[in-house]
Amino acid sequence: MSGIRALFASLIAILPAACSTGGIDVSQTGPFAPGIDRSAEAVGGVEVGHRLIAAGEFELAIRAFNRAALEQGGFDGEILSGLGTANLGLGRLGQAETLLRRATTEFDPVPEDLNNLGVVLMERGETFEAVQVLRRAFALDDGESTLIRDNLRVALAKTENPDSLEPNESQYKLVRRGSSDFLIRTAS
């Protein structure tokens, strides 16, 4: 019985130390996760999808974009583009092409979406159409994006001499709406 009393007494002694503000570090630099700021604005599903693509989590990105479409009541150009880019990252070229074509035909075309469609077309071996799409992306962008310009150069070089580029030398760059860019390398 005295063993139980000693254990109980030691727990009572420890409890106030743990509950006091000096016993546990509650600052942002402490070992515990920060609290939730309930007054902050939630990040939208589209932004979550883009962040997941940047992290290489393409399946999760597809789920985030589909969730965003449900929340918005349908698909817009950015969601279709994100879905296409995520499918391209998974190697699903047919689905990526379908989604990126919808993004560029059903909605006002954006240079980034046209660039990504051009990359898909290059991957599928449709070089001549890829050149046309990339030229359109380059024109809409007023030639400001070096990534689109580089993709156009690769596509033009491939049309002039299809054997001039080794598969491992070709690098296509995906462009996202926003600040990040994605790099896709051709498979050997």
Describe this structure in words.
- The structure is a single chain.
- The chain is mainly alpha-helical and 188 residues long.
- It is built from 8 helices and 2 strands; from the N terminus they run ααααααααββ.
- Strands 1-2 form a two-stranded antiparallel ribbon.
- A hairpin with a 5-residue loop joins β1 and β2.
- α2 packs antiparallel against α3, α5 packs antiparallel against α6 and α7 packs antiparallel against α8.
- The chain is elongated, with a radius of gyration of 26 Å.
| Major β-sheet annotation | 2 strands, antiparallel
The quaternary structure here is single chain
Quote the CATH topology: Serine Threonine Protein Phosphatase 5, Tetratricopeptide repeat
Please give the radius of gyration in angstroms: 26 Å
Percent range for β-strand residues: 5-15%
The name of the CATH architecture is Alpha Horseshoe
Low-confidence regions: 179-188
Give the strand order of the largest sheet, numbering strands 1, 2, ... along the chain.
Answer: 1-2
> What is the number of helices?
8
CATH class: Mainly Alpha
The CATH homologous superfamily name equals Tetratricopeptide repeat domain
Order of helices and strands: HHHHHHHHEE
The computed structural class is mainly alpha
* N→C terminal distance: 74 Å
